[in-house]
Amino acid sequence: MEATPYRESPARHSMCSAGLSAFVGPLASHRARPYTRGMSFESVGPTEVPENAHLIDVREDQEWAAGHAPNAQHIAASGLLENLDQLPEDGDLYIICRSGGRSAQVTQWLNQNGFDAINVTGGMDQWFMADLPLVSDDDSREPYVL
């Protein structure tokens, strides 16, 4: 049986051209530890995120639906370029994912493209461990980090 060749989608090609390939590749997942050495940006832990901060959750839809910070805005990393107009032009953006890898890459890219982004290290895993509030899109169950 012959393997089906991988075909790059136009959206993935656009993101790869923009330097976002590390978290949209065919093997990338929320469990992978992306390459982040050499990146330079400000980072804070979940407990250091200001109460009224503009928090952007870059996890995928099912991760977001399982549980997220109450006042976060959801823009999946895989759809970032198509949704840049949803980001405020002024002020700091705190970027969070599950463990901090995708958010580090998004933070780096946003800073290189004129935004003031700050990575939330440890992501939602550390948010949960710090006993910070979580909400879910499903009221019938407790929110959790996926």
Number of strands: 5
Question: In angstroms, what is the radius of gyration?
Answer: 15 Å
- The N- and C-terminal alpha carbons lie at a distance of 34 Å
Strand percentage:
5-15%
Q: How would you sum up the major sheet?
A: 5 strands, parallel
Into which percent range does the helicity of residues fall?
Answer: 10-25%
Q: Strands of the largest sheet, in order across it?
A: 1-5-4-2-3
Give the oligomeric state of the chains in this entry, treating copies of one chain as homo and distinct chains as hetero: single chain
The outline comes out as globular
| Total number of helices | 4
Give your account of this protein's structure.
The protein contains 4 helices and 5 strands; from the N terminus they run H-E-E-H-E-E-H-E-H. Strand 4, helix 3 (101-112) and strand 5 form a beta-alpha-beta unit. It is α/β, with parallel strands linked by helices and 146 residues long. Helix content is 23%, strand content 12%. It has helices spanning 10-17, 61-66, 101-112, 123-129; strands at 43-44, 54-57, 73-74, 92-96, 116-120. It has a 5-stranded parallel sheet with strand order 1-5-4-2-3, with helices on one face.
Short description:
The protein is built from four helices and five strands; from the N terminus they run αββαββαβα. It has 146 residues and is an alpha/beta fold.
